Amino acid sequence: MLKEFQEFISRGTVVDLAVGVIVGAAFNSLVSAITTYLLNPLIGLIIGQIDLSDMKFQVLGATFLIGDLINAIINFLIIMFVVFLIVKMMNRMRRDGSRSKFDQNGEEIPDPQTEYLQQIRDLLRYQQRHNNNNRY
User: Fold this and answer.
1) CATH assignment of 1-105, given 3.30.200.20, 2.60.120.260, 1.10.1200.120, 2.30.38.10?
2) Closest by alpha carbon to 40, among 14, 3, 67?
């Protein structure tokens, strides 16, 4: 069982996941600091209250900490925007990687899959013409 665990842990995907979690946690703390120490004071100046985390209201004796909720929403929006930008960049890189390639002379290198499909198309056209000529 120890050997199986060692094989599992040494797989690339597990290591990639661990690195992603660690980077994500570090990024989360950075975004929280930006929200708490930069954005909240700016928003507080605009609405006239210096510390958003102290914003609260009471209804029938229950206290609602609206400032902490605002902080969480701001953190979420910042993180989701950065994730959106990363996914957008990855999609662009993937799309650019699948575009036509050129050799040293500047001539387009044909995609093998496209070439193969064109050969199949041409063969089917030839067979169709050949069968139409033999009918009469």
Assistant:
1) 1.10.1200.120
2) 67
The CA radius of gyration of the chain, in Å to the nearest whole number, is 30
Paired tokens of 67: 């400032």
Residues 83-109 pLDDT 10s? 888 888 888 887 776 555 666 676 777
7-41 pLDDT, tens digit per residue, is 776 776 777 788 788 888 888 888 888 887 888 77
3-class SS letters over 46-83: HHCCCCHHHCCEEECCEEECHHHHHHHHHHHHHHHHHH
Tell me the C-alpha distance between 7 and 3, whole Å. Answer: 6
Q: How many residues does the chain have?
A: 136
- What angle (nearest 5°) sits at the alpha carbon of residue 25, between those of residues 16 and 90? 50
The span from the CA of 18 to the CA of 33, in Å, is: 23
If one compares 133 and 80, the residue with the highest pLDDT of the two is 80
Model confidence, pTM: 0.51
Cβ count near 16 (within 10 Å): 10
